[in-house]
Amino acid sequence: MKKSLVLAMAMALGVTASAYAANPFSDVPAGHWAYDAVNKLAAEGVVDGYPDGTYGGDKLMTRYEMAQIVAKAMAKGANVDKLAAEFADELDSLAVRVANLEKKADNVKITGQIRASYRDVDGDSKSHEGRLRTRLFVNGAINEDWTYTGRFENSQYYTGDKGASGDDDVKLNWAYVTGKVGGAKVQAGRQDFKLHTGNVIDATVDGAIVSYGDKVKLTGYVGKAADSGTWDNLGDATVVDSKDKVVGTALQEDDRVYIADLSAKLGVVDAYVTYYKADTLNENEIWNVGVALPVVKDLKFTAEYMHGDAEVGDIVDVDNNGYAFGLAYKGAKASQPGSWGVYANYFDQPVSTYLEHTIDGYAPFAFDTVEYNVDTNVATVDNASDGFKGYEVGANVALAKNIVAAVKYYDLEGREGNYDEQTIWSEVVFTF
Cα(117)–Cα(426) distance, rounded to whole angstroms? Predict the structure, then answer.
């Protein structure tokens, strides 16, 4: 490269070379006429040397090699219009190749989340659990219309009944593609089915989601539960000594789920009506109607009604109507340090109104053990609860960019029976 060209390129970048003291090339020693300029260009990533650590300034460059340097300088904001005009043809050809390379380089994006949480349960049950959960998200572009999403997850337990044993397995619990078919959006593979508040279902499912529309949107879900017992805070019980009378409605592995959802934005009101059909042991069907609307600035109110028709055996009569209400003021945003929020929720839900609840608090079991004597045809139900009711309050704050802390308190009791549980849940979530 000619002396004037090297100096002009360095000056065009508009930063003095004195800030770059390190010598990147063995054949451009301090005191060399090109030392400062070459040092500057190397620091900015405009020029590269050879694998042996030399710059090779005495070697002839091709026009394409020079065009690459010009392209890098332009990307750094350098004013090299004359050089751009001189190498216009090469830059035009190079632009195609560079764009393709950049597209391939950005084809896969990896992000992550680390959550340290602690749960303390008091009341009729007493327990505590600390967990460190790590998630890695993989997003890849398949083409202009389709993408891939994967999620790897690992959990380590540092307190509680599980001790410090942890879960040493890394699970791929998301693996799905998203794209368009005609005017519809399609999402298919292993994914979470969580609708609206999650008070009816929040479960990992192998299935497909198809949605159509914007302000008025119709969405269909069909899938099969990917695991069993994903709750560790809500549950159901089975009848002892009876093969045909089963209590509880929770999703078990391989249970099928069918959902149809119609949602609409009506001015400032978000409204929805949802139908759930689950091939659980009790063949549950649930209707869910809900609204969300602002009360005043930054304060949102939500209300839901659920009706389930699950027949919980012929042992215990259960209610079929459930309700949930919530108030939320602002909310922490990971990208905005100092942002915060507070909220409160109230639940009154029999077991027939939820399949896999999103709640973090410990709630009473649907039923305690039911002893059924097949000889006398008599069932003894100890402390039946028929679901749960109670409230949740919580707060969250962004301590720094991508660091959010939260605390929640639950006071939940059985809708029937004597169960009464209080839970404090705290967590710090780091995203990257």
Answer: 6
Q: Give residue limits of the domains in the chain.
A: 3-105, 110-431
Asked whether the beta carbons of 399 and 348 are under 8 A apart, the reply is: no
Crossing angle (nearest 10°) for helices 63-75 and 3-12:
20
The Cα 304–Cα 347 span in angstroms is: 10
| Strands (DSSP E) found in 214-353 | 216-225, 239-240, 256-266, 269-278, 284-296, 299-308, 321-330, 340-349
At the topology level, CATH places domain 110-431 in: Porin (2.40.160)
Listed residue (356, 368, 371, 284) closest to 320, CA to CA: 284
378-381: strand order across its sheet: 239-240, 370-373, 378-381
Q: Could you give the CA distance from residue 35 to residue 22 in angstroms, rounded to a whole number?
A: 10
3-state secondary structure of 105: helix
8 A C-beta contact, residue 369 and residue 383: no
pLDDT in tens, 276-293: 998 876 678 999 999 999
On whether the CB atoms of residues 372 and 245 are closer than 8 A, the answer is yes
pTM above 0.85, yes or no: no
In angstroms, what is the C-alpha Rg of the chain? 30
| DSSP H or E stretch at residue 169 | strand 167-181
> First-to-last CA distance in the chain?
42
Q: How is residue 213 written in tokens?
A: 């529309």
Amino acid at 400: A
What is the rounded distance in angstroms from the CA atom of residue 376 to the CA atom of residue 241?
A: 12
- List, in order, residues 6 or more apart from 296 with CB less than 8 Å away: none
Number of DSSP helices (H) and strands (E) in the chain, helices first: 5, 19
Instruction: Kindly give the pairing relationship between strand 216-225 and strand 202-213.
Output: antiparallel
- Among 196, 198, 200, 193, residue whose Cα is nearest residue 308: 200
Look up residue 321 and give its two tokens: 């109507």
DSSP assignment of 363-406, as one string? ---S---EEEETTTTEEEESS---SEEEEEEEEEEEEETTEEEE
- CB of 324 within 8 A of CB of 198? no
Classify residue 125 by burial, with Cβ atoms within 10 Å: 0-12, 13-18, 19+.
middle
With beta carbons less than 8 A apart as the criterion, state whether 253 and 230 touch. no
pLDDT digits (tens, 9 = 90+) for 373-425: 667 666 555 555 678 899 999 999 999 999 999 999 999 988 876 778 899 99
DSSP string, 356-371: B----S----S---EE
Give the β-pairing of 370-373 and 239-240. parallel
